[in-house]
Amino acid sequence: MAANEVRFAPEDVRRVERWLLWYADNQEADGTISDRVGTVASYGSNGHRDSTDSYAATFLMAARRYQKAIQGQPAAKILRAARLAFGAIADVMQPDGLTIAKPGYGMKYLMDNVEVYGGLTEGQPCLRQSAMRRRPREPVRWRRA
Questions:
Q1: Could you identify which of 21, 65, 97, 102 might form a hypothetical disulfide with 1, taking C-beta atoms 3.0 to 4.6 angstroms apart as the criterion?
Q2: What's the predicted TM-score (pTM) here?
Q3: H or E stretch covering 127
């Protein structure tokens, strides 16, 4: 979607929309995505999660960039998935403002936290502009350096 601002490509916007809808359809109730196993023709969840903070953050970045590209509101299920993604990030946010990769796994990865920062800063306008009444679960706080 970042390249779309340089060279508009409607087919890329449609591909992003399909991925956002796939993500929304496969998102767990807690806002996370489970790893998939199988083949292209047939695959399913293996019940494990690689990273809950990073997946949610990259979804939020893509959703916001998609929203800017279409100059309107994404489908309701994409906005619902964005709200759940914020919750998934909140669930692993630590008192120091950093996230651990997933519940029960206490590692804080630099790359994941860079993605989380991007997802939170890009994703919040997506939620504000959607006029949703319910806010994501607290606390999601970032301090500017």
A1: 65
A2: 0.83
A3: helix 110-129
Query: With contact defined as beta carbons under 8 Å apart, do 101 and 43 qualify?
Result: no
DSSP 24: H
- Cα–Cα distances in angstroms (integers) from residue 118 to residues 8, 28, 45, 52, 136, in the given order: 22, 22, 27, 15, 16
pLDDT for the residue numbered 111: 95
Listed in sequence order, the residues at least 6 apart from 94 whose beta carbon sits closer than 8 Å to its beta carbon are: 100, 108
Residue 96 burial (CB count, 10 A): 8
pLDDT at 86 over 50: yes
Q: What is the pLDDT of residue 15?
A: 94
Q: How far is CA 61 from CA 46, 56, 78, 100, 125, in A?
A: 25, 9, 12, 19, 11
How far from the centroid of its chain's Cα atoms is residue 69's Cα? 17
